[in-house]
Design goal:
The structure holds two protein chains of two kinds.
Chain A (H helix, E strand, L loop, with lengths): L3 H9 L56 E9 L7 E9 L2 E6 L9 E4 L4 E4 L1 E3 L27 H8 L2 E6 L8 E3 L1 E4 L9 E3 L3 E4 L7 E2 L6 E3 L5 H27 L1 H4 L7 H11 L4 E5 L2 H14 L3 E5 L7 H4 L4 E5 L14 H4 L8 H7 L4 E3 L19 H10 L4 H6 L3 H6 L17 E4 L10 E6 L2 E5 L21 H4 L1
Parallel strand pairs in A: 1-4, 1-5, 6-7, 11-14, 14-15, 15-16, 16-17
Antiparallel strand pairs in A: 1-2, 2-3, 5-18, 7-9, 8-11, 9-10, 12-13, 18-19, 19-20
Chain B lengths: L1 H6 L3 H21 L4 E8 L7 E9 L2 E7 L10 E12 L1 E6 L13 E2 L14 H9 L2 E6 L5 E9 L11 H4 E11 L7 H19 L4 H5 L20 H5 L4 H7 L5 E5 L2 H13 L6 E4 L7 H7 L3 E4 L3 E2 L6 E2 L1 H7 L4 E4 L10 H10 L4 H7 L2 H6 L17 E4 L10 E6 L2 E5 L5
Parallel strand pairs in B: 1-4, 5-7, 6-8, 9-10, 10-11, 11-12, 12-15
Antiparallel strand pairs in B: 1-2, 2-3, 4-16, 7-8, 8-9, 13-14, 16-17, 17-18
Helix pairs in contact in B: 5-8
The chains are: A alpha/beta, B alpha/beta.
Chain lengths: 488, 427
């Protein structure tokens, strides 16, 4: 081989004749090295895609069609708001439920999803979720948090695989109330129809002297209030001003000439006005019997509907709770945060937790929604504690004595009511969003998986095309797919 | 010659060669009048078919003739370099290099620095940095500043031959106003900011079109032979936009006088940008996408814009299934300009990364085009560089064999006929 530098020198010096090694042959010609007839990328043929996987599970679309209608037929429907419908049909049009029931005429050409042997449930709702919309985001100025959402992120995929179609993210309580939290839908792969509401909940910290802990345990998320009474007083002062404002406003509306100027109020007061108007829900944490009684009295005094989070000792506080307009967001197996001193020794020996906490609330006529111990979602860590096991969490309420209906409602219709989004989601009713789970078993069966998930009438998850559960066969008598890691 | 070759194993011999080289280069300015003939195993013209047993004639820093040895006669007076195993390709063009002193951050936030000319800030750093680009095969780099919003106008840079002094910016600068660099990150960049800026620019454009109807005919920029940096004809510029230096580059992008490159790293970024792109149909920037943007394929197809992509593949979330992002864009027939994964001048191994794309099923021709003619076209400099053809600048790479074979070495890099990297000379 000639040394290139020598060749260069030779060239520059104009030495035209020089010794040369015998020429090496060019690489053998093959289809890749052969000159292409056209160098434009467009000329390349499409490569073969992975062959369609074959399994016995429900298929989203049996045949492609341009029809605006989708029908899920021959399925067991769990509307939540009504009794179960056997061999029923759900007809979907423009993202909404057009009809539910038996013997529903299906328009010509509608996309058909065969629901034979399948169970249809409303999409589950996570009242507290972490990063299913991409994380670390919030409403900014007049832009919605939905403007920052990442509908491709893996936690959204996991949430859908777990049947969760709607979630709320963000918000932490203060004595003066924080209007925060974004409610959105897991519209995987699209931002159309993702956002439902920004600044969705008024978070109030009321009368807690201890450092504030997450309802789900773990490290404190806020330092202790300066004093029990001063924090409570702040909340009550704001509520008093809000009541005054509403009176002044009513007077102004009734007779503007007599009332003079339209009433005004600061932002914090206005937040409570919205709460008293019923526009935004109020979330207050209360765990022990003392705290629960305090919150009930607050609700009674200002006629303020409050959603109590935690409520570990609700089972022991029913007479106190009866004073207020309360609803509950709880975890059926939550105990006081690890390491915390039992706050009401008389009642909490050994832990204050009773498996029938949720059941006792149901029997007393309260609406409760169920949350897992952790608002995160992951495939690692402690199994059965986060959003991946939301339906299992509802089963703990049933195990403690709650009815099956209340169990399913606690992760569908009840959270929708508590978040004031039950006009959109939470049950399979005519006019609501078509957020539907096609499940292989009853919704709260511990072996159940969502095989198809629709959000706004669009298929956003299919078990056999996703990497999470597609190795688990619908028919459990057959073994896991052989080389399942590769096959998927 | 033989004596020197024999001695080259020793240090003295090497020094002698280097000394001889310096002498040659010093003399090469005078020798530029002379014609150089390359007689090689294959010339990858990119604009046409590869030519086997090819002859390339270079004179005055330009290519004067490319053809097969049977057709092209080598003039008696020409210096001849010949080796039947060698391959020659056009020099690589880096479509988006945040290098030479430019920040390599991200696209967060949104601010308007559209009037900023990066050419004034380009730092030649060191000869090592300059030759690093040459070693990777780059003969032309579009240097940009990364950032959210409108980060500024890029500059063309080429590697230069090392000299016995510190490098200066004018050693490497090849032109200013190469493009308008933009960035969007849904988490931190306000959509409102983009809407307002584009709204203003669209209005300025419409206002300019109203009084003078003649400007309308001029606004078609498809004169493929002229670089956009040259085409900043003053007469067609809208008067109001001209008053606002931050606005006029954006108007130029809408008028397609200036290439606009919009950096969007994550696929959901494009989802959030789509309503804005639909609102402003004249705003069709080249998209600089991250390796996760295989999901954006359909949207890019819908927009009909070229993309700048790293060579990297990604793994599908929670699996070990590889998704070769660039391959999917090639498959879809979208014009692709490939760039190294790291925007900083750490270009080492770029040829191997290109070979990886070939290995995943894209043809050699397509991959080579994606680093030569396609970036030249999207930056509007295809009349000058990007292919081997008569009249083009003599920016070329001499390889010891097939450029995508791992056994091949990049022997020599030429910019306008000057050798800026020589594998024998370099350590």
């Amino acid at each position: 081989m000639m040394r290139p530098s020598l060749l260069m020198i030779a060239g520059l010096l104009g030495m035209l004749a020089f010794a040369q090694d015998p020429p090496a042959p060019l690489p053998e010609s093959n289809p890749e090295t052969a000159p292409a007839s056209d160098s434009k990328p467009a000329s390349r043929p499409r490569r073969r895609r992975n062959a369609e996987s074959t399994s016995s599970q429900a298929k989203a679309e049996s045949r492609p069609t341009d029809s605006p209608f989708t029908a899920i037929v021959d399925a067991t429907i769990w509307p939540v708001s009504a009794p179960v419908i056997r061999r029923g049909t759900i007809l979907i049009f423009e993202g909404k439920i057009l009809d539910v029931g038996r013997d529903i005429p299906i328009p010509e050409g509608a996309k058909i999803i065969d629901g034979k042997g399948k169970h249809l449930s409303p999409g589950f709702i996570a009242m507290r979720a972490l990063q299913t919309f991409g994380g670390g985001f919030m409403a900014r100025g007049d832009e919605s948090a939905a403007d920052q959402a990442d509908p491709y992120n893996i936690r959204m995929q996991m949430a859908l695989a777990s049947g969760i179609t709607t979630a709320m993210e963000g918000g932490s309580p203060t004595p003066t109330g924080t209007l925060a939290g974004f409610i959105g839908k897991h519209t995987y792969g699209s931002i159309d129809g993702l956002g439902i509401r920004d600044r969705a909940v008024l978070w109030v910290q009321y009368g807690t002297t201890e450092p504030l802990r997450s309802p789900f345990g773990g490290d404190p998320i806020a330092p202790a209030a300066p004093s029990d009474q001063s924090g409570k007083q702040q909340t009550r002062d704001l509520l008093k001003r809000a009541v005054e404002f509403r009176k002044a406003r009513a007077a102004f509306v009734a007779d503007p000439a007599k009332a003079g100027k339209a009433p005004t109020a600061d932002e914090n007061t206005m937040n409570f006005v919205k709460a008293l108007d019923g526009e935004v829900p109020v979330f207050v944490r209360a765990s022990t019997r003392t705290e629960l009684a305090d919150v009930a009295r607050l609700s009674e005094e200002f006629n303020l509907p409050i959603t109590v989070t935690d409520a570990t000792e609700a089972w022991a506080s029913l007479p106190d709770l009866a004073r207020g307009r309360l609803t509950f967001m709880l975890n059926p197996r939550q105990r006081p945060a690890d390491g915390a001193e039992p706050r009401n020794r008389l009642l909490t020996e050994p832990s204050g937790w009773r498996p029938y906490n949720a059941a006792s609330l149901e029997k007393a006529g309260y609406t409760f929604a169920v949350q897992p111990l952790s608002p995160t979602i992951s495939t690692d860590g402690l199994p059965g504690r986060d959003l991946m096991a939301l339906p299992i969490e509802a089963c703990y309420a049933i195990r403690g004595g709650a009815s099956d209906a209340a169990g399913l409602a606690s992760i569908t219709l009840n959270p929708a009511r508590l978040l004031k989004i039950d006009d959109r989601v939470g049950s399979l009713d005519i006019g609501k969003d078509a957020d539907i789970l096609v499940m292989d078993r009853e919704p709260l069966d511990y072996r159940s998986f969502a095989e198809i998930v629709l959000v706004n009438g669009r298929v956003v998850y299919e078990k056999d095309k996703s990497s999470f559960f597609n190795h688990i066969p619908t028919d459990r008598s057959t073994p896991l797919k052989g080389n399942w890691w590769r096959d998927r | 010659m033989t004596l020197i070759a024999m001695a080259s194993g020793s240090k003295v011999g090497r020094l002698a060669i280097v000394a001889l080289f310096v002498a040659c280069v010093a003399g090469s300015v005078a020798a530029q009048e002379r014609m150089l003939a390359l007689h090689v195993g294959r010339a990858w013209t990119v604009s046409g078919k590869p030519i086997d047993d090819a002859v390339i004639l270079l004179e005055n820093g330009k290519i004067t003739r490319v053809g097969s040895a049977a057709e092209v006669e080598i003039p008696e007076t020409a210096d001849l370099l010949e080796n039947p195993t060698w391959h020659v390709t056009p020099g690589f063009i880096h479509a988006y290099a945040a290098a030479f002193g430019m920040p390599t951050g991200d696209f967060s936030g949104a601010s308007n620095s559209a009037d900023r000319q990066i050419a004034t800030d380009v730092k030649p750093m060191s000869w090592e940095v300059i030759t690093a680009a040459a070693k990777a095969g780059f003969t032309r780099l579009n240097v940009v500043s990364m950032g959210g919003g409108f980060a500024g106008q890029g500059a063309f840079v080429h590697p230069a031959r090392k000299q016995n002094r510190d490098p200066r910016a004018d050693d490497i600068l090849a032109g200013s106003g190469s493009c308008l660099a933009m960035g969007f990150d849904p988490k931190t960049s306000s959509k409102k900011f983009f809407r307002e800026a584009l709204g203003k620019a669209t209005k300025a454009r419409e206002d300019a079109a109203k009084p003078k109807k003649s400007t309308k005919a001029e606004s078609k920029p498809e004169s493929s032979e002229s670089a956009p940096s040259e085409s900043k004809g003053a007469e067609s510029k809208p008067s109001e936009a001209a008053k606002d230096p931050k606005l006029s580059p954006l108007v130029d992008v809408l008028e397609k006088r200036l290439p606009g490159i919009l950096g969007i790293r994550a696929p959901h970024g494009l989802l959030h940008m789509m309503p804005i792109l639909k609102e402003f149909p004249a705003f069709r920037p080249i998209l600089l996408l991250g390796p996760d943007c295989w999901r954006s394929l359909d949207l890019v197809k819908e927009l009909g814009v070229p993309v700048i992509l790293p060579t990297a593949s990604v793994l599908r979330a929670d699996t070990d299934i590889e998704i070769p992002t660039a391959v999917r864009f090639f498959d879809a027939g979208i014009p692709v300009a490939l760039v190294p994964e790291n925007p900083a001048p750490a270009f080492t191994g770029f040829a191997y990364h290109l070979a990886e794309v070939v290995r995943r099923g894209v043809s050699r021709d397509d991959v080579l085009r994606s680093v030569t003619l396609t970036p030249a076209e999207i930056l509007g400099i295809q009349g000058e560089v990007g292919s081997l053809g008569a009249g083009k600048s003599a920016d070329l790479l001499v390889w010891s064999g097939d450029p995508f074979a791992p056994s091949s070495r990049l022997l020599r890099v030429m910019v306008a006929g000057t050798v800026v990297h020589d594998s024998e000379e370099a350590p």
